[in-house]
Amino acid sequence: MAKTRPGKRDLDSYTIRGTNKIVRVGDCVLMRPSDTSKPPYVARVEKIESDSRNNVKVRVRWYYRPEESIGGRRQFHGAKELFLSDHYDIQSAHTIEGKCVVHSFKNYTKLENVGAEDYYCRFEYKAATGAFTPDRVAVYCKCEMPYNPDDLMVQCEGCKDWYHPACVGMTIEEAKKLDHFVCSECSSDDDMKKPQATFPVSPGSDGKMNEYFQVEPKRRKR
């Protein structure tokens, strides 16, 4: 366990100013940016400590939004997607605006209702090099893109692959009305089984594997 410096003491929790919300080590929080026109930063609290003047500081591990990373936001990045970085900082606890929940990708896709404080993470990110872990991700559809949980997809009953409606010549409205779907490659199979009911609503982890994220160094400024 890390030693606390002279004059400092570890705290079990911190109550966000002006609220009754309690932050503990391991919680994810929203932190006020210096540019108030930007959305709050998201971080995981690693340590809470107070000095002799009762100034409370938090050691945090930052989550990056796709647009803050090397390579920027891509088509398959969801609106609530974050990357857990290796970038740590010490910040005043007073900059904490609220709490949030960063779900695993799998758990996020199972949420019936996504709230304003719900996010998800499927990659760890090295801020200095732009490297991602894992560096391979399942891809779907003719466009061979990873799954974006914000986008509707339909599953072929034959090959079991998933498709964006636009990639198979359908509108979103048409896709929502489907009881079953067979892709063009499977439609010639006369032995295709008819559906029992309807198909699942989102891909699992059985897509084709491909490699992404060829990026160059860049550092984030605060």
TrEMBL record:
Which positions fall inside the PHD-type domain? 138-189
> What Gene Ontology molecular function terms does this protein carry?
chromatin binding; histone H3K4me3 reader activity; transcription cis-regulatory region binding; zinc ion binding
- Origin superkingdom: Eukaryota
User: What biological process terms from GO does the record include?
Assistant: flower development; negative regulation of gene expression, epigenetic; regulation of photoperiodism, flowering
**In which compartments does the protein localize?**
Nucleus
Q: Mostly located where? A: nucleus
Keywords, A to Z? Flowering, Metal-binding, Nucleus, Transcription, Transcription regulation, Zinc, Zinc-finger
Q: Which GO terms describe its cellular component?
A: nucleus
The answer, when asked if Cytoplasm is one of the entry's keywords, is: no
Q: Which Gene3D superfamilies match?
A: 2.30.30.490, Zinc/RING finger domain, C3HC4 (zinc finger) (3.30.40.10)
Region (Disordered), start-end ranges: 188-222
Where does the BAH domain lie? 21-136
Protein family membership: Belongs to the SHL1/EBS protein family.
Q: What is this protein called?
A: Chromatin remodeling protein EBS isoform X1
Originating gene? LOC107459840
